[in-house]
Design goal:
Blueprint lengths: L5 H17 L7 H17 L2 H5 L9 E9 L4 E7 L4 H17 L8 H20 L3 H10 L1 H11 L4 H29 L6 H5 L5 H18 L8 H8 L2 H11 L1 H14 L1 H27 L4 H22 L2 H32 L15 H14 L6 H16 L1 H9 L1 H16 L6 H4 L6 H19 L2 H19 L4
Antiparallel strand pairs: 1-2
Helix pairs in contact: 1-2, 1-5, 2-4, 2-5, 4-5, 4-12, 4-16, 5-6, 5-7, 6-8, 7-8, 8-10, 8-11, 10-13, 10-14, 11-15, 12-16, 13-14, 13-15, 14-15, 14-20, 15-16, 15-18, 15-20, 16-17, 16-18, 16-22, 16-23, 17-20, 17-22, 18-19, 18-22
């Protein structure tokens, strides 16, 4: 390790900040807890910026590497590093954490220190997932990140929060156990190494690759989530507090997709190629079928939750077509989805804080009372629909181009269903925002306050900037994606 350990800082600054925030104790110290949390979140974001500014875009390998022994007896190391595939997610995670702390500033009135601390600790653990290059270290971060989100849903969630939290925990935990089994097999096969980069160089037969691929798939598909293991997500979103929904959609869903690129494709390349038609088929089901499911939802949160499943179907579709446009487009879609889905859930949270309902039928004519909110909500709805000029268009367009190169009918099936995305998003927007004032609850609404305008305005700038000029995002990942596809294309058998 040379230079400043920015990856360690990205992991441990928010975790330490969370512990300090937790130490403020009871709600009588809530103002102090909020201040500590905001300082820790901003500090956690600032230490990630050098990862981008100091990143060498011409190199596809790992950068900012840190290596130290952890459990020498079993050759387990504290081994960190990022490439063009993972570095942007660390920045996105740190950025979203700041937004969540600001969004919960006035909304959360009970167990404030514990609420803020949970998000800070989870932020550090998520950064650990994106930077871990040791299999056991990755697994520890991967599993530990479940705990804060489980508590966030289970303590600050809605009426059915306990059911949703347990369902979320069990689905993700059971899949992860099979991933651990595959890691132990790779440890034996590599001669006693948990080094993920060593695993990328392993040569083993097709039957073993298929078993390893499906063992990892069990964990990563649940996290995405892919159809048909998606049912935990709508429940978790509906019951989670706004901040929990934002982090789950913006970052949590990216863990499974990231796992495919870091583990499944490079470790079992031949199996990945052989199983690609199955994954592409499941992805198209998610894009099409789940789009229709979203169209009939009466709850705004549930609609956006199903929308996330459909959008993540585009991501897995892009990955398993295994061409540069598809993979890079899917990565761009993941970053954009972090901005757009986070903003959509925050907008729904703004309405819920005032009316205490997420039912579309309980609104109507919101624009008459909240014009600033309506304008920002419209931008995010358009981005969710893939409007050109917004971040939502860039990734979907690149994946569509990659699909045309792969197979015309796959491209046709995927792109025609973008109409569904526009249909369910804009229909929801029309019923909530336009028309005459729906009822006395809407009549009493007040427009965005300064705090709400701040976090929604910042997200709006991100959505527009990425949509108008995506080059700063695509140039970072280009070399790493090229290396990955070359590695997968060079069969080990």
């Amino acid at each position: 390790m040379t230079g400043t350990p920015f990856l360690s800082l990205a992991i441990w600054v928010p975790i330490l900040g969370g512990i300090i925030t937790l130490a403020t104790g009871s709600d009588k110290n809530a103002p102090m807890a909020r201040l500590f949390a905001l300082v820790a979140a901003i500090a956690g974001f600032l230490v990630t910026i050098p990862l981008y500014t100091g990143f060498d875009v011409s190199q596809g390998g790992m950068q900012f590497v840190e290596l130290a022994p952890w459990v020498p007896r079993f050759n387990i190391n504290y081994y960190l590093g990022v490439d063009g595939i993972s570095v942007l997610f660390i920045l996105l995670n740190a950025f979203i954490t700041v937004m969540v702390v600001i969004a919960g500033w006035e909304v959360i009135q009970e167990k404030v220190a514990q609420y803020m601390a949970a998000f800070l600790i989870m932020s550090g653990l998520l950064n650990g997932i994106f930077s871990a290059l040791d299999g056991i270290l990755f697994y520890v971060f991967f599993e530990a990140s479940l705990i804060p989100l489980y508590l966030i849903i289970g303590i600050w969630g809605g009426p059915n929060r306990v059911y949703a939290a347990i369902k979320f925990f069990l689905y993700t935990l059971l899949g992860s156990l099979l991933m651990l089994v595959s890691f132990l097999y790779l440890f034996m096969e590599s001669g006693g190494s948990f080094n993920v980069l060593d695993w990328h160089q392993l040569k083993f037969g097709m039957d073993a690759q298929v078993l390893v691929f499906w063992a990892m798939f069990a964990s990563f598909a649940v996290k995405v989530p892919m159809w048909p293991v998606h049912t935990w997500l709508p429940d978790a979103h509906v019951e989670a507090p706004t901040g929990g929904s934002v982090v789950l959609a913006a970052i949590g869903l990216k863990l499974g997709a990231y796992g495919f690129l870091r583990f499944s494709l490079p470790i079992a390349p031949d199996a990945s190629i052989a199983m690609a038609p199955i994954v592409i088929g499941l992805s198209l089901v998610a894009v099409i079928y789940i789009g229709f499911v979203a169209l009939v939802q009466a709850d705004m949160k549930k609609l956006v939750a199903y929308s996330s499943i459909s959008h993540m179907g585009f991501v897995t579709l892009g990955f398993f077509m295994m061409n540069p446009l598809g993979v890079e487009g899917a990565l761009i879609q993941m970053i954009s989805h972090g901005f757009v889905s986070g903003a959509m859930f925050l907008c729904i949270g703004v309405l819920y804080d005032r009316v205490h309902s997420r039912q579309i039928a309980d609104y109507g004519g919101v624009v008459n009372k909240m014009p600033k909110f309506a304008a920002l909500f419209m931008l995010f709805a358009m981005a969710n629909s893939g409007l050109p000029g917004t971040s939502g268009f860039v990734g979907e367009f690149m994946v569509a181009l990659g699909a045309v190169q792969f197979n015309f009918w796959v491209a046709f099936a995927a792109t025609t269903t973008l109409i569904l995305g526009a249909a369910y998003t804009l229909w929801m927007y029309k019923r909530v925002v336009f028309g005459a004032v729906g009822n006395h609850h809407v009549e009493e609404l007040e427009d965005l306050n300064g705090r709400e305008f701040l976090f929604l305005g910042i997200l709006a700038l991100c959505v527009l900037a990425m949509g108008i000029y995506p080059f700063p995002f695509t140039e970072v990942m280009h070399a790493s994606v090229a290396d990955l596809l070359q590695h997968v294309g060079n069969s080990k058998l």
